[in-house]
Amino acid sequence: MHELLLFASVPTHQHAELLQQLAGLTAMQPRHCFERRLIFKAYRKPGVANARVGASQDLQSGDLQRVNKMLNGGMFYTQVVGPVQSTDFADAGVTDAAANANPNPVNPDPDTDTKMDGMDSESSIPRSAYDFDQQSWQLEFRDIPEAGTRSAVTSRVMATAALPRGDIVPSMNAWGYSFVTEYLVEGDMFIHNDIVLNLHRVLHYPTTPGEENQPRHQMPTLQQMAPLEKSGSYVLQASMMVQDGSNQETMKTASQHLFGLREQLKSAVRLEMADRLSLDTRVK
Amino acid sequence: MPVTGVYFIPAHPNASTALGNITERLRSSFPDEDLIQLGRWTLEQKLMRDTPGLLPTSSGPNQRPSKPRYMQFLSLSHYHNHGFIYTSEPTEKPFHPHNAASPSPAATPATPGLQGAGAGAGVGAGAGAATTGSVNDSTTSNISPMLMTTVPHSSYSTLFQHFTYACQPFWCHRLTVVVQNGVFYDIGDFRVRLGDVRQTYPTNRVRGAVVEIEWRGPSVIDSLDGAVTSDVNGETDSGVDVSLSALEESDVDAEFAATALLIREFWVRVGVEGAREAILVPGVGSEVKERLVKIKGAKNTGGGLSGPTEDDPNPQAGTDVARQYMEVLRFNR
Lengths: 284, 333
Fold this sequence. Notes:
The structure holds two protein chains of two kinds. In chain A, about 25% of the residues lie in helices and about 30% in strands.
């Protein structure tokens, strides 16, 4: 499967306005969503990668050449994504509306802070109804965007597959991936014909010692999450999936639909293709 | 979760398989039974191997032969809700460049308790967390322990494509074998599934015949199913309760051993020579044991049993028989 994308940067002050504009354009209310995103990195035994076979004197073995070629093939970072509810965060009092109304959660209101301090004396992590063993996951593989496309959209190979619930790390380890880190994506989703619009930003978890090497089993409060982009700005992502990426005709139609959207939103935001290397998922 | 045994009778590439012979023997060995075909079944297995392990050992700089690692994708028509992925455990710890310092569990006072809960009562509670390390398996195989994962059927082929596309340096697709026109019969307390195993990748050839023998007679393990349903309905029968709390993992092992004898007896009676057997394979029975942990955990904590999710009522179903199939179908070439 292929994915065609356009991106735009949305400063904080424009966020509320753009939400309304998008709601008007798509004739739907924004769907607020949170996603846990775990980053996994493909690993292979250190040293084995260099197991080159000399000057390849036994040319008869094409098999060997094939294996060598495979050994030097690309390896990738891949993400495991799990949707969470706003009630999964430690203080379940935060509603979608409250999270929307308060675009800058770095400054939690003092009441919550006091409550937090009180909870800290009992346990370092405030509890919520969040059940890690029931967390659903899906594997989201994204290749590096294709190079040398004359079209002005980002296009890349993608794959999405549902995984079992709960602790996914043992399986991922066995499959050749090790856990690197995780972050949270908060945003609103719209559907416009065949295009998915995502107005989102990345949130970082508060650092808890000892939890860096595995996905968190408990969620912190939403107020404790800090945006990656300090100014609090958002990214608007317009994406479209194409089942058969080798079909030039469908790819062209899909890009034209995206360009159509770009024209419609021209007065509000400037949608453009992303820098290819900024979306590089290869393991170096 | 019945107790099963799987037999594989290899055949020469261009010869016919033992299938006809087996059917004939079943007929003659059980003259009192009507051999009525109850239905058809299919199987597909894709075998992947670790790519570095394919290099000739002499050419690598490190001479010590490493254990081969496998990843097997199995889909069975009689467990159509999910596909099975059976993978060798990683031989070494994943390489963490950034977090080289190992996490000390004592550093976080709250997490050990949580992890304890997760490891104990929570193992089975994850309705979809179908990950089970097989521990006591030093008996027969010379390969590293394997990890069973079940994935929804929709993602089964996507994942396989992902591994062939993005994981070439460590996974290499070696072969695909299929059973396309399997048949099954009920013979006494047994259900017998028969089929021709054909290899479809990299070349078309005959591999042999496979026979799955399922014990459908009375079994302690069946009571677990009843316990689950009665729990869910809130009509817990105290009699079942007692028998369940008395049921330990060793009882499950004993039950498997006893039923294995019955299956072997059955196979001897059929009397087909040269078969490879997989009954008490590494990790077999963990499907049942996890169910047991789940039921007991739900009792101990007083919490409700995690109900079946809409996507897959029981992600663990069939992992035992899947293990047996993958054991006999793990061809070297």
